Design the sequence.
């Protein structure tokens, strides 16, 4: 039986929807990876520009910063990238749920961190879960909220089997717009970052 014009139109629309979803997935993967690369090198303006105009940032229980310019202010209070500094933040293990029609998405990521400042004799490993949301703003995907929940942070030469470094609950030179979303402490305390999904 030959397909009708209606059948063919439905197939075309379904294929277009799948193509849009695939392209949105690709763009969101690049968006989050770009954030990691910019943070690695202290390119704070470029990292902030990835956020939506009203985007929020919350890291390590230090409170919530609201709006792209407040995110920029917070990031610029972090260490400057220079000789003797390592600030790697690898973006790994994505689970993305995208509503292409609505222009919204949610994502869970793992970041593995290597932080080092030679002059301060600081060298640490860290790992965190990101539970993020995204929005299509003026035709471009942007980070609507970035929430980094630290799972462990430890001295590089001692390892996590010795415990961990307590989370720093504030950032010098700036105060958050809202308190942290929930109270927690990193390893050796057990913490499970809230999931945006019940099933994949």
Sequence:
């Amino acid at each position: 039986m030959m397909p009708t014009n209606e059948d063919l139109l439905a197939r075309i629309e379904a294929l277009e929807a799948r193509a849009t979803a695939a392209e949105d997935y690709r763009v969101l993967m690049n968006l989050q990876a770009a954030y990691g690369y910019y943070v690695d090198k202290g390119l704070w303006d470029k990292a902030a520009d990835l956020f939506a105009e009203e985007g929020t940032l919350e890291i390590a229980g230090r409170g919530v910063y609201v709006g792209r310019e407040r995110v920029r202010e917070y990031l610029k209070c972090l260490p400057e990238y220079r000789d003797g500094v390592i600030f790697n933040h690898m973006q790994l293990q994505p689970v993305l749920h995208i509503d292409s029609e609505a222009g919204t998405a949610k994502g869970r990521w793992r970041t593995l961190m290597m932080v080092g400042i030679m002059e301060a004799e600081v060298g640490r490993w860290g790992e965190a879960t990101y539970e993020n949301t995204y929005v299509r703003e003026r035709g471009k995907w942007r980070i609507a909220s970035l929430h980094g929940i630290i799972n462990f942070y430890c001295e590089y030469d001692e390892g996590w089997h010795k415990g961990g470094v307590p989370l720093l609950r504030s950032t010098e030179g700036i105060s958050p717009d809202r308190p942290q979303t929930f109270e927690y402490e990193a390893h050796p305390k057990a913490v499970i970052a809230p999931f945006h999904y019940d099933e994949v």
Observations:
- The chain has one domain: 5-162.
- The longest helix spans residues 5-40.
- The radius of gyration is 20 Å.
- Residues 5-162 form a domain with the Nuclear Transport Factor 2; Chain: A, fold (CATH 3.10.450.50).
